[in-house]
Amino acid sequence: MPDTARPALLPVVLLHALPLGSLMWRAQASALRARGHTVLTPDQRGFGTTPLGAEPPSLDTVADDVAALLDEHGIQEVALAGCSMGGYVAMAFLRRHPGRVRALALFATRATADTPRAAAERRTFADLILDDTRRDHLVAGTTPLLLGAGTRERRPDLVEEVLTMAKGASPEAVAWAQRAIAERADSLPVLRATDLPALVVTGAEDELVAAPDAAATADALPRGRLVTLPGVGHLQPLEAPDEVTDLLTTLLDDATTPDRNGYGTC
C-alpha cells in the first residue's frame, strides 16, 4: 500500500520589528498554526518578557538566541521571516547558522549596512530614547512614520495600537537594538549564497526603506521574489495582514513542494 502520510509541515519563526514585540505577527501566527505549522514568535532581547542581558549590542547575539530557541524546541530547519529589525536578525542568522533555513521572507528591510551617517543617527536616537525629558516627544514623533500615509489616514486605531506598543517598549532595549543595528554587517554576500525560496516584501508607502534598497535585497537572492504592497508602509504584517499571510503561505508551499523550482526574480 502506498504511504499516504502527509509530510511534516515546516516550522516557522517570525521575528518582530523595532520597537514592537511578537504580537505584531498575531494574525499570521494564528493563520499558520491553523494550517498545522509550528510557529515561534519570540520577543527579542529586552522586549516582552525576554530579559535584555548584559551582552554588548549585536545582532549576532540575537541570532544566536534564535538558534538556542530552535534547539530548545528540537527544531533543526525552519522558514524564517523578519520585519525591519527582525529581517536584520534573520540575515545574521543566515550567516551564523547556515543550513538551518529552508525558506526566507524579509519585510521592510535592507541587506546593506548603514552608511556612516545613518549609523550615527541610530546612535543619536539611542541616546535620546534614554533621556527621560526627550523620550515621549521622540516616540510620538517617530512611531507613526512606521505606518504608511494611507494607513495613518484610514486606520487611526492601528496608529494608536502601534503607539501603545512603542510606548511600552523598554528604552534600554530600544537603545540596545538601535546600536546593534547600527553595527550590522553588509548581508549582500550571505544573500547571494542563499539558494532557497525567498521573498522580499516592501510597502509602496514605506518611508524608511526605499524601493531600490528592497530591489537590491531581492536581486541578491538567487531565488528571490520582490513584492510591493500598495498603500502600505513599514509594518506590513499589521497594515496588510491578509496579504502577508497569503505571501507566507505561498512561500511555505514552495519550500515543501519537491517539483517546484522556487521563485523567479521580478
TrEMBL record:
Residue ranges of domain AB hydrolase-1 in the record: 11-241
- Whether Hydrolase counts among this entry's keywords is yes
User: Which keywords has UniProt assigned to this entry?
Assistant: Hydrolase
The record's listing under SUPFAM superfamilies reads: alpha/beta-Hydrolases (SSF53474)
GO MF terms listed in the record are: 3-oxoadipate enol-lactonase activity
- Pfam families under this entry? Abhydrolase_1
Give its E.C. classification number.
3.1.1.24
| Official protein name in the record | 3-oxoadipate enol-lactonase 2
Q: Which organism is it from?
A: Streptomyces hundungensis
